[in-house]
Specification:
The chain is an alpha/beta fold and about 270 residues long. The protein contains ten helices and eight strands. The mean pLDDT is about 100.
Amino acid sequence: MSVPAFGLGTFRLQGQVVIDSVSTGLALGYRVIDTAQIYENEAEVGQAIAASGIPRDQLFITSKIWIANLGQDALIPSLKESLRKLRSDYLDLTLIHWPSPQDQVPVAEFMGALLEAKQLGLTREIGVSNFTVDLMQQAVAAVGAEQIATNQIELHPYLQNRKVVAAAQAQGIQITSYMTLAYGEVLNDPVIRQIAERHQATPAQVTLAWAMQLGYAVIPSSTKRENLASNLKARELRLSDEDMAKIAGLERAHRLTSPAGLAPQWD
């Protein structure tokens, strides 16, 4: 897989909070960091990475291009600014954060600019986020499926996004799950708690293991050292077919992220 299975998310974390989270995560063994231009924390993430002393080639850093920067003239300059903040010569993965509202910037235009950024060596891999089946097809038509490393989408036991997953996998595009814990809602689910007890694991570990076992990458965030350490152990947990089937049964089309004016027409 071109995108590592387990990483550290930084959504909603800013200032000293994100510095501490990333610093602690790196100290615990995290090597994959996910940020975005709109999170307004790239400089702090870069500061924490620099202070860690971990060689750049041991890290996998992802950021995302904001909608204001999707135009052909803006995308690469904005990516260079992200690199300056992150104190790096390149990103491992650069995503289009959201499709352009009302198609103001055509998919072919921003995907072409993103591919150019890759050809210039500014990013090793490129991909998309919050893309529907139709938008993925447009992206594939623009640059080829082999160029699109991942589609990062909201995906958790209550929103399993199977139509988008199937369309992505048919093209060889990996899925990255964000909000895998559904803002913590699934941690109190009786089915997940029962599975966790049986494995002597936490509900978070079970949920993250479920997503990774389906082949998705996950990027949970936390500000607490014990949760950061505990989440890492999800990589060692193997769920049974019965466990996986029970979690599959929790689907309820419960979408948590759909910003007005930004969200596409979901599948």
